[in-house]
Design a protein that fits this description.
- This protein has 263 residues and is of the alpha/beta class.
- It has a single domain (2-225), classed as Flavodoxin domain (Rossmann fold, 3-Layer(aba) Sandwich).
- It has seven helices and eight strands; from the N terminus they run βαβααβαβαββααββ.
- Helix 1 (15-29) runs parallel beside helix 6.
- 32% of the residues are buried.
- InterPro entries: Flavodoxin_fold, Flavoprotein-like_sf, NAD(P)H_dehydrogenase_qn.
- One of its GO terms (cellular component) is cytosol.
- This is NAD(P)H-dependent oxidoreductase.
């Protein structure tokens, strides 16, 4: 299996860096091939702007989706973006690794998504009509590939529980899991989350590292998050609302987009 890890932490010699080493070592030991995109080491350009579209006319307005679509179709995106797209196509499984900063991913990783997920590559694909709104949410270029998040948080698990002040971790990660991974077609695995990392010593790190090794051993067999697919009869087109009667008893918010009966 080919595994791409997109690593977003400014300090390689950190707890996140140690977790990366654990993951790479275990995956390699299992016989998988691993590539790492270390965004800070690569000095990844975060902001999407006119420089991303070399063929865009100097006097033309920048409409990012159109410039992205035209650039991708003409094979005219910048070399750094094209290299990351090639890694995504190569990978069978993609892992996004990052510390949770202000309830989201670091800006450099969001910038990676903004620039690499070009129109025609990660979105804007498939038939667009009154009956079908493209290949997305379970379909698309990344269909058949697996993906997961590897996240560190300074807070306690209780802080991110159903009654915790920060809100449930699954809710905080929904825009990434559902909107960034599931949208272009990835099968999304439950995230690996390490809590209370700011004060983690070697003794506390050891069981976390072992848990991560177990997750790396089961990437191919772990049951994914059962998100509902867009074009399989659960949503009304064109409003994209869940059809009446499909909401599980007691479900609300993001939970309504889960279909536990499906793999």
């Amino acid at each position: 299996m080919n595994v791409l890890i997109v690593f977003a932490h400014p300090e390689r010699h950190s707890l996140n860096g140690a977790l990366l080493d654990v993951a790479v070592a275990e995956l390699t030991a299992q016989g998988h091939e691993v590539k790492v995109s270390d965004l800070y080491a690569m000095h990844w350009k975060s902001a999407i702007d006119r420089d991303d579209f070399p063929t865009l006319a100097d006097d033309g307005p920048l409409k990012v989706w159109k410039a992205s679509n035209d650039g991708f179709a003409a094979d005219a995106l910048t070399p750094d973006v094209k290299a990351e797209q090639e890694k995504l196509l190569w990978a069978d499984t993609v892992i996004l690794q990052f510390p949770l900063w202000w309830f989201a991913m670091p800006a450099i990783l969001k910038g990676w998504v903004d620039r690499v997920y070009a129109s025609g590559f990660a979105y804007g694909v498939g038939e667009h009509s009154d009956q079908r709104w493209g290949d997305r949410y379970g379909e698309g270029v990344m269909a058949g590939k697996r993906a997961m998040l590897m996240v560190t948080a300074g807070g306690w698990p209780e802080h991110y529980s159903d009654r915790g002040i920060n809100g449930p971790m699954d809710d905080l990660l929904f825009p990434i899991n559902h909107g960034i991974l599931f949208y272009p077609g990835f099968t999304v695995l439950p995230p690996f989350v390490a809590y209370r990392v700011d004060r983690m010593d070697e003794a506390k790190f050891a069981p976390v590292a072992e848990q991560l090794r177990e997750r790396m051993k089961t990437l191919e067999t772990t049951t994914p998050i059962p998100y509902r697919k867009q074009n399989f009869g659960d949503y009304q087109i064109p409003t994209m609302e869940l059809l009446p009667g499909l909401t599980p008893p007691g479900a609300r918010g993001f939970e309504v987009h889960l279909a536990p009966e499906r793999d």
